[in-house]
Amino acid sequence: MEEVHFWRGSVEQRAKRALSEKSGQFMYFDQQLDHPDWQEKLVLDFGGNTGNLLRDSNGAIRPENYYCLDVLRDAVAEGRQRFPQAHWFHYDRYNCSFNPEGIAGLPIPNMGVAFDAILAYSVFTHTAREEMRKLVHELLELLVPGGTLAFTFIDPHYRSWPRAYDGNNLQWRLERVQEMNPDVNVPEILEKARAALWGTLVDGSKFHVDSNGTWDHQAGACLTYNVFYTVNFLQREFPGATIRPPVNDEMQHCCIIQAPARD
Fold first, then answer.
1. 49: left (phi over 0), alpha (psi -120 to 50) or beta
2. 97-101, 114-118, 146-150, 163-167: which range is least confident on average?
3. What is the CATH number of domain 1-263?
């Protein structure tokens, strides 16, 4: 199952949420950013869910310096209960998968501070390409001079675990979908995506090459919406960025953009 199933899936799927919390985000970003001193950094966890990044930091990030912004109202509420000293904001922006009743194009709110680091784990893997570009621009405006934005993305053709798994990242995702939906034609989708620079997998069964994709739901929602970018494509989208390969046994690359330093 994917993260969205634990929040918008069946009763049985949502009941498994407490047993499926993702861990390792802090270790991932700590490695990608070369182990900075986190103690005095103001950190925005963009799409931070219930605050797993803060939990996993084991005190490296101080709760009073941690801000979380997420489109899932229930996740923000749970995080606030766990870490009342931290700062929690529900971002009621439309997302076709996680928040289909939200407000399309809602700007990122002003939280009253400038951040030293903004981290986004598995956020732009679920948003349209144009939305990613717009949100990255807005996030960079929230950084202190010289601050850092780091976000993850998944290259469909990259083989994340070559010693343990022979397929690429897209194949791995499709095979997980196939476990729930045996009708998914994995070889056909892989062939369609073979030369894609980027693409979108809608509801686990339709891959749209170099496109945001569409879905048939009148409510403007789809349960799963996964966007893939090749390293070369994303480097062209953000020419000044540093892109690093996956670490910590993850499948996600990291795109790192520095805000301009003050003269």
1. left
2. 97-101
3. 3.40.50.150
